[in-house]
Amino acid sequence: MGHSQRIQTVVIGAGQAGLSVGYHLAQRGLPFVILEANQRVGDTWRRRWDSLRLFTPARFDGISGMPFPAPPHSFPTKDEMANYLESYAKQFGLPVRTGVKVDRLSRQGDRYVVSSGSQRFEADHVVIAMATYQSRRTPAFAVELDPGIAQLHSLDYRNPSQLREGDVLIVGAGNSGSEIALELARAGRKVWMSGRGTGEIPFRINGSAARFLLRPLFRFLFHRVLTTDTAIGRKARPKIVAKGAPLIRVKARDLRAAGVDWVPRTAGVRNGQPVLEGDRVLDVANVIWCTGFHPGFSWIDLPVTMDEHGGPIHGVSRDAEYIADTVADRVRARAAEEPRVPALLAAG
Length: 348
Hints:
The chain has 348 residues and is α/β, with parallel strands linked by helices. The protein has helices at 16-27, 43-46, 78-91, 175-186, 208-225, 231-243, 252-258, 317-335; strands at 4-12, 32-36, 96-98, 104-108, 111-116, 119-128, 135-136, 150-153, 168-171, 191-194, 261-263, 266-270, 273-276, 286-289, 293-294, 344-345.
């Protein structure tokens, strides 16, 4: 193990949450470093599928201190988002160290220890600002598929050229699955989309109704009403988590018009081929797993601060300010020799 670097606050992850936390820490004059596993800020976005666009218009995509540089009602591409984050870090001179993948977070005495290979950082405060899609989630029976079937997770899908000739089964009927299914069908592939429907928002997000009336209404609902701070939000949260978010851009009629066949849940494998609920076997050449992610916090060797609903404390712009204030309070508490508490988690 190489020599340790002593830093007051370590922020793990240079995505929207980590950079926003860094901005607020810098505004308070607090010393910190942001550790980013990728070689460039924004690479997590750059690696998503080629045609991906954000589901929110540019007016809502900026983070603290810097509006998104695009027409307010446009929907940025994934590369535009990546470049925005990189520019944001440069604009505010945030101390981001790229190519530093954290593999262990532990506690020794009164300090946190952050390890990345032979590098070691000792800190008074740690903010975990990495997204919860760290580990691909696929069913156990995926390994039983015939090796001649190409398998990809949605995180690894880029464009139709990756796939083998033949039919495609998309497992998972949420937003990623529906967008990939539509792209492949329009590229001339026969596509089967498997899974339970999650519903859809009842308007086109790029239409005038959404722009002037419904979009502000939905923003109010999901930011002010359907949150864990309200009774109705707490009641709705388990259903949203279990069922998935409604389709935002793609509609069921779009899938039907493109020739996508929506079929029941994929339940297993028989003779190397996927089997649907109802015992139907599909003969396909490709399977794309749009089945979500595990959060991947096994590298954390200490308790993580959770909210009262059992989820991680998380945030981007408005919550990042709260986290920075909390760090500042702890700095003052440490100076006054008051007790310390576990690390905050900002999933973003």
